[in-house]
Amino acid sequence: MKLSNAVLFCLVFFLVLASCDSNRVFDTYKSVPSSWHKDSIVSFKVNPPDSTNAYNLFVNLRNTNDYKFNNLFLIVEMVFPYGKTIKDTLEYRMADPSGKLLGTGITGVKENKLWYKEQVVFKETGEYIVNIQHAMRENGKVNGVTELDGITDVGFRIEKPIKK
């Protein structure tokens, strides 16, 4: 009987903890195989809740100590419901000058919440598609990194702006 009470308490605790994120509108991760191939695109289908309010958009990443670069280049493409496409090449810092990986987490996995766009109004109703692909290159080399190690999950998040 005591074991089931402990399990029930843990379940309620985690449900309460997860529901505290009142700014979250969309937040999903997709796992990456043992390495992220340069041609592999991680896609998210999103149906924004309305076409009047502004939202902040983030790319979320989980990485391990196997990630050996100080930065990360991503190509993020947003396909609108009626066909318009916006494609951005973005650079993010992943480690401090000493080489220590940035992000949150006390284990060997770090979580990074990376700004993509802010104050976005989804004026078109319908399904948006967000495609994320890495575009890493080693210094002095023309060809990109074919297999990027250390990225375990790629996510996309939409949230309501924090009211000041």
Q: Please state the overall shape, judged from the principal axes of the Cα atoms.
A: globular
Q: What is the tally of beta strands?
A: 10
Helix/sheet category? mainly beta
Strand percentage? over 45%
Q: Biggest β-sheet, characterized?
A: 4 strands, antiparallel
Helix content: 10-25%
Q: Quickly name the level 1 CATH class.
A: Mainly Beta
CATH architecture: Sandwich
Arrangement of strands in the largest sheet = 1-10-4-7
Number of domains: 1
The low-confidence runs, each spanning 5 or more residues with pLDDT under 50, are: 10-18
Overall mean pLDDT stands at 89
Question: Any idea what the radius of gyration is?
Answer: 18 Å
- How would you spell out the order of helices and strands? HEEEEEEEEEE
Count of helical regions: 1
How far is the N terminus from the C terminus? 47 Å
CATH topology: Jelly Rolls
